[in-house]
Amino acid sequence: MITIETFTRILDLGGTFVFAISGALAAVDRRLDLFGILVLSFVAGNFGGITRDLLIGAVPPAALTDGRYLLVSVMAGLITFLAYAGIDRLRSPVLMFDAVG
């Protein structure tokens, strides 16, 4: 049996995933590297929740204290990078080391 807390957490992480994909797609459209895609993925996926938590007084925000939000955002960014930016971009050593750096 799923409790209401578990259900709301699943919905929150699902929304984070969808918004993170949206941010990652915007980064791919602007031809950013992997790091840029991951940053925009995290910002788009979590900034609304961080703002909500700060406005209602839930300090520190859940997205900064719970690692699941970071994991979901990074997964969405990686999926988007591999699906839309293509693995061909990683074949260039300069782009790969730029993303790692």
UniProtKB/TrEMBL annotation:
It comes from the Bacteria. The chain crosses the membrane at residues 7-28, 34-55, 67-87. It is a multi-pass membrane protein. Pfam families: Gly_transporter. It is found in: Cell membrane. Keywords: Cell membrane, Membrane, Transmembrane, Transmembrane helix. The keyword Cell membrane applies. Its main location: membrane. Residues 10-84 form the Glycine transporter domain. Belongs to the UPF0126 family. This is Trimeric intracellular cation channel family protein.
